[in-house]
Amino acid sequence: MKGLLEFKAIDIKGNVEDVDSKLRTITGYFSVFDNIDLDSDIIEKGAWKKSISERSNEIRYLYNHNWEKPLDKGSVNLLLEEDSYGLKFSAKIPKGLSYGDDLLILYENGIVDEHSVGFQTIKAHKENNGVRILRELKLYEGSAVTMAANPLAKLTSVKSSIKDNNEMISKILKLFKSSNLTDDTYVDLEIAVKQLQMQSFIIGQKHSIKEGEPSPDTQIKDYEPLINTFNNFKF
Predict the structure, then answer these.
(1) In 3-state terms, what secondary structure has residue 66?
(2) Are 137 and 46 in contact (CB under 8 A)?
(3) Can you tell me the distance from the alpha carbon of 152 to that of 102, in angstroms, rounded to the nearest whole number?
(4) Nearest alpha-carbon partner for 94 in 73, 112, 74, 72
(5) Whole-angstrom distance, CA of residue 24 vs CA of residue 8
(6) Residue 192 in contact with residue 148, Cβ under 8 Å?
(7) pTM higher than 0.85
């Protein structure tokens, strides 16, 4: 809604172009153009042009939209540009930033592979079919996000969605056993696992699954021993 701060996640995988842990640099996309998103919005090319031109120094790169966890800023290393695909960014995570160290690990392991933007709508037009065309947006921040907003809306098929959730749970639990992360990140990952579990269960309850396939609650139980490790972990 015009005048209010909005958040919008990319509902397309693969918007991380490159992660260089040695240089601590990230390149990817905060948003894409000409794609109908989860809110029935389309961002037009040029929507970010004014923000980039007039206030790029004030725009932040955050972790999970948390202003207490900044990663970069336009006046430091964050670079923004519009290309034919979307709003491209490159950033550098400072050394000695513990949650930044964790984020690099999450990127490398494919657990963080999506981004989201915090913005204000300045100019928009609603089509007869209900799709909103976003023509000018005031960008405040772009975030690396562990879980994109409203992931259930990305459902393309029951089987593939539950499979994707289970694969992500496996990645998180594998990382949990093999990496030394900060306490806050362990908590974030535990929440992510529980969200993924609940999504799979809800998807299975709302949609029929082919006969002979394990039910979502059965699949969830397969992970309970490792999930209990999260619950019993002493910080």
Answers:
(1) strand
(2) no
(3) 26
(4) 72
(5) 25
(6) no
(7) no
Q: Could you write out the DSSP letters of every residue in 201-227?
A: HHHHHHS---TTSPPHHHHHHTTHHHH
Q: Could you tell me how many residues make up the chain? A: 235
Q: Report d(CA 4, CA 6) in Å as an integer.
A: 6
pLDDT in 10s for each residue of the chain, 235 residues: 556 788 887 766 657 889 998 999 999 999 999 888 878 899 999 999 999 999 999 999 999 888 999 999 999 999 999 999 999 999 999 999 999 999 999 998 888 888 889 999 999 999 888 899 999 999 999 999 876 543 333 333 455 566 777 788 888 888 877 777 888 888 778 777 777 777 676 666 665 544 555 555 555 555 555 555 545 544 3
* Distance (Å) of CA 166 to CA 14, 66, 93, 95, 111: 18, 27, 30, 33, 12
Q: What tokens were used for 216?
A: 């979502």
Whole-angstrom distance, CA of residue 126 vs CA of residue 116: 22
Look up residue 43 and give its two tokens: 């961002």
